[in-house]
Automatic annotation (TrEMBL):
Gene3D superfamilies: P-loop containing nucleotide triphosphate hydrolases (3.40.50.300)
Species assigned in the record: Corallococcus interemptor
Entry keyword Oxidoreductase: no
PROSITE patterns membership: ABC_TRANSPORTER_1, ABC_TRANSPORTER_2
InterPro entries: AAA+_ATPase, ABC_transporter-like_ATP-bd, ABC_transporter-like_CS, ABC_transporter_ATP-binding, P-loop_NTPase
Family (UniProt): Belongs to the ABC transporter superfamily.
Name assigned to this protein: ATP-binding cassette domain-containing protein
Domain spans labelled ABC transporter: 2-232
Alphabetical keyword list: ATP-binding, Nodulation, Nucleotide-binding, Transport
One of the record's GO molecular function terms: ATP hydrolysis activity
SMART domains per the UniProt record, alphabetical: AAA
Length: 244
């Protein structure tokens, strides 16, 4: 479970995140939905200990990420916005290397890497160096790296950005599997349809603030709109984010 309480972050004169509070439960897919520049990436970066908040707290399975960052990181799998692959390592070597960093070795690591190659449909690319990989192939490798240690909490920054329909479908299937295993899954997107297709719970962020939080039905009911699209426009106050 992930809890963000009154998170706040400024960069110079820009307030990227202003008092963001939400809880992401286990066995639930929570979507952080908001237009470009809303503060989604900055919020995720604070949750995964890359950026230190100016105010507020965040916990992962009850562990304060500022006080015990190493413990929190062990319980997290992260797909960052910059996928950041090593061009000279193969896809399989990425998964192995990050598994080793998490303390896995021997037959356990071998089995886990094979499982991910299978799960992410990476057989054709597993032993190729990642230099020159397509965007979809890069996301698969970054996902394998994020999930190799079997984290209970998974944070993904715009996981389907730039992916074709088939790759998007396989990422959605993967996230639903993680949910079925009881993982806490949080992902960000600026595309309403993406969030609507996957999420049990939607946290709408605009201008650094949470402007709505609940199920799609609750969002529609609270705005008095019939469609989720109209409800989204109503809470963020613009049509930005409706189209990719
Ligand atoms: N390192 C930084 N230095 C300066 N400004 C930053 C930095 N990181 C984020 N910002 C600013 O904070 C605001 C929120 O950015 P953030 O990347 O969190 O938004 P986002 O919701 O993830 O947007 P997008 O959908 O475009 O990725 C933006 O105005 C951005 O320019």
């Amino acid at each position: 479970m992930i809890e963000a309480r009154n998170l706040h972050k400024r960069f110079g004169s820009v307030t990227a995140v202003h008092d963001v509070t939400f809880t992401a439960e286990d066995g639930v897919i929570t979507g952080l939905l908001g237009p470009n520049g809303a503060g989604k990436t900055t919020t995720l970066r604070m949750l995964y200990t890359l950026v230190r908040p100016d105010g507020g707290t965040a916990t992962v399975d009850g562990v304060d990420v500022a006080k015990q960052p190493e413990v929190a990181r062990r319980a997290l799998g992260v797909l960052p916005d910059a996928r950041g692959l090593y061009p000279r390592l193969t896809a399989r070597e990425h998964a192995r290397y990050f598994g080793e960093l998490h303390g896995l070795s021997g037959a356990v690591l071998d089995a886990r890497v094979e499982e991910l190659v299978e799960l992410l449909d990476m057989k054709d690319i597993a032993d190729r160096r990642t230099e020159g990989f397509s965007q979809g192939e890069r996301v698969k490798v970054a996902l394998a790296r994020a999930l190799v240690h079997g984290p209970r909490n998974v944070l993904l920054d715009e996981p389907t950005n730039g992916l074709d329909v088939m790759a998007t479908r396989s990422v959605r299937t993967l996230l639903r599997k993680l949910k079925a295993q009881g993982c806490c899954v949080v992902f960000s997107s600026h595309v309403m349809q993406e969030v609507a297709a996957l999420c049990d719970r939607i946290v709408v962020v605009a201008r650094g603030r949470v402007v709505a939080d609940g199920t799609a039905d609750a969002l529609r009911a609270s705005t008095g709109k019939d469609s989720l699209e109209e409800a989204f426009v109503s809470v963020i106050g613009s049509e930005q984010g409706l189209r990719e």
